[in-house]
Amino acid sequence: MKRFWVWLPIFLLILISCGPKDNLEKEATAIINSNCKKCHSLKRVYNNKGRDANWWAETVSRMQNYGANLSEEEKDLIIKYLSRR
Ligand code: HEC
Question: Is any atom of ligand 1 closer than 6 Å to the C-beta of 39?
């Protein structure tokens, strides 16, 4: 029974660290799906793996200049998600 108390905190940690990330992914992909495939395919977005937050901030600002319609919140959220993939 001692084992249980060893694993419990580890279990909780895993749960806590998974929760917010899943939400971020869900919210970000919903925003990307509805805003980023008007002008090009989503391949263009998802092909850029490993880009940092600065690159995404610049790129998303450029997309806003082209006409992408994002609130500040939505922009921050997708930059966060895309730069962590
Ligand atoms: C109004 C049209 C439009 C919308 C909406 C749009 N884009 Fe783009 N996007 C473009 C054009 C035009 C290019 C090619 C020219 C360029 O890279 O600046 C492009 C290129 C890109 C590239 C490639 C950039 C590179 O340097 O390789 C990425 C990544 C990208 N878009 C991401 C997004 C994301 C994320 C969204 C949603 C927030 C989005 N785009 C919405 C027009 C748009």
Answer: yes
Overall residue count recorded for the chain in this entry: 85
Q: Would the CB of 45 count as within 6 Å of ligand 1?
A: yes
Nearest atom of ligand 1 to the alpha carbon of 66? 1
Counting residues of the chain whose pLDDT is more than 70, the rounded percentage is 95
More confident residue, 29 or 6: 29
Distance in angstroms between the alpha carbons of the first and the last residue of the chain: 39
- CA–CA distance, 16 with 30 (Å, rounded to integer): 22
Mean pLDDT of 14-40: 88
Mean of per-residue pLDDT scores for the chain: 92
Q: State the closest ligand 1 atom to the C-alpha of 38, by its place in the atom list counted from 1.
A: 5
